[in-house]
Design brief:
heterodimer, A: alpha+beta, outer membrane lipoprotein receptor (LolB), chain A, Phosphorylase Kinase, domain 1, 2 domains, 5 helices, 20 strands, 18% helix, globular, B: 153 residues, mainly alpha
């Protein structure tokens, strides 16, 4: 009897352990780090009323190297992104220049590693949903949720993780074939789905490097520091003298609009992200009324010749303090809340 | 969406004939493109002009008159049809012609210009921030690259 029980336990344990959410997450991380794959995927980012859709072919050698060729939107078709030795390069079709992209987001495997750590520390909860299929392949569906997704007004922000992440993990290989990320409850949402998959393709090393005659330059429009961005901007960039504890500048984006340049300082704190927008001698914003529930705080105002905006899921008081440090002179400027 | 497609859809948008998804895509493009915003304003102005044209009600017995004329002159029925309809439709047709000429002139003289101030909405900046946030959770770097450099260029 005892032997029969022991045998049953031995047979049951590996199967039962396999079905634990954290182990599927770890398996997905391992698959992303090690497997050679190619295919086509669609990424959609929906914010407010806007959906940006990207379709791309990709070739990936685990977490070591990746090549992406853009298929859509049509205006960007043919552009190539290359990853190798920790850096991303962008190339336009038939161009003799490649552009190094600063401060790119974490790779898929690194995101899954972060998720594993947060699940292990109890900040994020993981649960298995009923199985589904993607590309005709049987998938485990894993949902990750913040342990405390709802915040009261002006409560300290939660850890920097989306409110909900759903992964469709291929049972056979462990590869995530589909992902859905909701930043806050409901929206906005990022969706990624593979529409074609090739396992263990033959990947030549040349696939991941630009042709030898291509000159590599820094990418214009995105900068790691304000000083670098200042060289591309025709007015003095203002920076806040007050920042929340632990805030670091993630990147500076310079966009040219019909009315002039807009500078975006994108910051990250241990718990939140926020962006400071500024333009000079122009008023780019028509304020449109109240924000919908679940959207970040937004504050827009004019001071001297500058127009400013701050958007982020910081407490309202923090946003106002940052605004004051930039020179918030217009007391009637509209403020919006969650 | 690019400008050519936007221009093709602008009249259907003004007349409320686009599907919600198409309208959303077009509105997203309009928010980012001052040139197409001016095209939209011109189309809306033209539509207002057309709507403001005087309307002529057809006589109550029009169909009876038409049938009678057809019966009277069986050899040339199309000529009578044309004469009747030409009278009814002449004023709006002239108005349409004038509006189309003005629309063409306006569109030609409103090419993109860096001197023109076109306003972004606050919503557009909130969405840009949210896109930056979301792109960081994408397993592909392409959204982040496109948000930084513009989806269309």
């Amino acid at each position: 009897m005892r032997a029969a029980l022991l045998l049953t336990a031995l047979l049951w344990l590996p199967g039962g352990a396999q079905e634990r959410p954290i182990q599927w997450l770890q398996r997905a991380q391992q698959a992303e780090e090690t497997l050679a794959v190619a295919g086509v995927r669609v990424v959609e980012i929906t914010t407010g009323r806007t959906t940006q859709r990207i379709e791309e072919r990709f070739w990936r050698q685990g977490a070591r190297a990746e090549r992406i060729e853009v298929l859509a939107p049509p205006e960007r078709r043919g552009e190539v992104l290359l990853y190798r030795d920790g850096r991303w390069l962008a190339m336009r079709p038939n161009a003799k220049e490649a552009f190094e992209m600063p401060r790119m987001p974490l790779q898929g495997a690194q995101l899954l590693k972060l998720a594993v750590e947060l699940v292990q520390s109890g900040v994020v909860l993981a649960e298995l949903l009923p199985d589904s299929t993607v590309l005709g392949r049987s998938c485990v569906v894993l949902r990750l949720m913040l342990a405390r997704p709802t915040l009261k007004r002006d409560e300290s922000p939660r850890p920097l993780f989306p409110a909900a992440v759903t992964l469709w993990i291929d049972r056979e290989t462990g590869l995530p074939l589909k992902r859905e990320v909701a930043l806050r409850e409901g929206a906005p949402v990022m969706r990624m789905e593979l529409t074609r998959l090739e396992l263990n393709p033959r990947l030549s090393p040349e696939l991941f490097v630009p042709p030898p005659d291509v000159v590599v330059r820094p990418l214009e429009g995105v900068y790691a520091t304000v000083e670098e961005a200042q060289r591309a901007v025709d007015f003095p960039i203002r920076t806040p003298s007050y920042l929340p504890a632990g805030a670091t500048l993630e990147r500076v984006i310079v966009q040219t609009r019909a009315y002039g340049q807009v500078v975006v300082l994108h910051y990250r704190t241990p718990n939140a992200r926020f962006s400071i927008f500024q333009a000079h001698k122009s008023r780019p914003v028509d304020f449109e009324g109240k924000r919908r529930r679940g959207r970040p705080h937004a504050h827009f105002w004019q001071s001297d010749d500058y127009w400013f905006g701050i958007v982020g899921n910081l407490p309202k008081a923090e946003i106002e303090r940052i605004a004051q440090s930039l020179g918030a002179s217009d007391k009637n400027a509209p403020t919006t809340g969650r | 969406m690019h400008c050519k497609r936007c221009e093709r859809q602008i009249w259907a948008y003004v007349e409320g004939q686009l599907l919600p998804r198409q309208a959303q895509a077009l509105e997203a493009h309009l928010r980012a493109c001052a040139h197409c915003q001016r095209q939209l304003e011109a189309a809306q102005a033209t539509a207002r002009v057309l709507r403001a044209l005087p309307r002529h009600r057809a006589p109550a017995n029009l169909s009876e008159q038409v049938r009678r004329r057809i019966a009277e002159t069986p050899a040339r029925p199309t000529l009578d049809w044309a004469r009747v309809w030409r009278r009814v439709a002449l004023a709006p047709a002239l108005g349409l012609l004038a509006a189309a000429a003005w629309w063409g002139w306006y569109a030609q003289h409103s090419a993109p210009s860096t001197n023109t101030v076109a306003a972004d909405s606050a919503e557009a900046f909130v969405e840009l921030h949210e896109q930056l946030e979301l792109a960081d959770w994408s397993p592909s770097p392409t959204p982040s690259y496109f948000i930084s450099t513009g989806y269309t260029r």
